[in-house]
Amino acid sequence: MIDRRSLLAGLASLPFAASAACAQSSGQPPAPATGGALRTVRIPGADVEVPIVGVGTARRYDDPQGAEALAPLRDTIRRFAELGGQVIDTAPSYGRAEEVVGQLVEELGVRDRLFLATKVGVDTREEGVAQIEESFRKLRTARIDLIAVHNLRDVDNQLAILRDLKSAGRIRALGITTSSDRQYEQFEAVMRREALDTIQVDYALDNRNAAERILPLAQERGFAVFINLPFGRDRLFGATRDRPLPDWAAEIGATSWAQVFLKYVLSHPCRPIAIPGMAQVRYVEDNLGAARAPLPDAAMRTRMEQFIDGL
To answer: pLDDT confidence of 36, banded at 50, 70, 90?
Structure first.
């Protein structure tokens, strides 16, 4: 599986490579995200409005070694907070990501400006209590904004723990996550029977299965939606890397392929929050550009689907 970072590193040596934020072949770097307000959505439970693009930390924050490796991650979080970003999503299963995020957020002094989300992914109540306490320690915070049950592991026990923590004021919101359509049937069942604040699911312009039942149900139930893998797994950047942006990209205010892909995700009627991986300032500036108006309407979304399906 090729992640975005690896793909872009390989493309950097090619003559058609564009910005490091995306493989746009026009030769023009994407415009920094500096103008216009970031669109926001409300997180139930936490009762806060957060911008619709956040930072994902899987694979990028898992094990940086030394000051040189930490520097770009620190700059990324600093710039993200400067531009008004809030959501940083992590998990105990992402190597040292919780620990790294906690260290950098504390060093930058930006904890009160961020919405920190993590997960619990174990098989018993006792393991869940222990893992969650470790998350508090690693993130260096007395309150975590969101904890979700990761990939539905031991979902009943873990949700019970999270409800207790929410009642005690130690977390603000709770939810469930998946990144595989093999779990969608079980995921939907939990969504129907449980009082949740959020869900997290995989969804992208080339991976639209969640839009059939999961996303409409979240909208019906009033759950906030976080989107993992908003760039797909390995196809979107590869399929478009040697192509200029289509003319219709200007109609949605997209100046890079990354913004095209994100704006498609963000324009779903459930009003989701996308959490692409970001480990460099240029990714932050590019990706946050997608959180600004305009977003595609229904006709444009169909046009975008037809375009990518035809590649």
So the answer is: confident
Are 185 and 204 in contact by the 8 Å Cβ rule? The answer is no
Q: pLDDT at residue 60 above 60?
A: yes
Q: pLDDT tens digits for 182-193? A: 999 999 999 999
The conformational region for residue 25 under phi > 0 = left, psi -120 to 50 = alpha, else beta, is alpha
Per the CB < 8 A criterion, the answer to whether 31 and 261 are in contact is no
What is the C-alpha to C-alpha distance for residues 193 and 83, in angstroms, rounded to an integer? 38
Quote the mean pLDDT of the chain.
91
Do residues 33 and 286 lie in contact, with contact meaning Cβ atoms separated by under 8 Å? yes
* Terminal C-alpha separation, the chain: 19
| Separation CA 10–CA 135 (nearest Å) | 34
- Edge-to-edge, what's the strand order for the sheet holding 273-274? 55-56, 87-89, 115-120, 144-149, 171-177, 198-202, 224-228, 273-274
The one-letter code for the residue type at 286 is D
Q: How many CB atoms lie within 10 A of CB 309?
A: 10
Give the helix/strand (H/E) hosting 54: none
* Structure confidence at residue 234 (pLDDT): 76
What structural domains does the chain harbor?
Answer: 40-309 (3.20.20.100)
DSSP strand pairing (40-43 vs 48-51): antiparallel
User: What kind and span of H or E run contains 105?
Assistant: helix 97-108
Residue 24's pLDDT is what?
28
The two structure tokens encoding residue 170: 């130690």
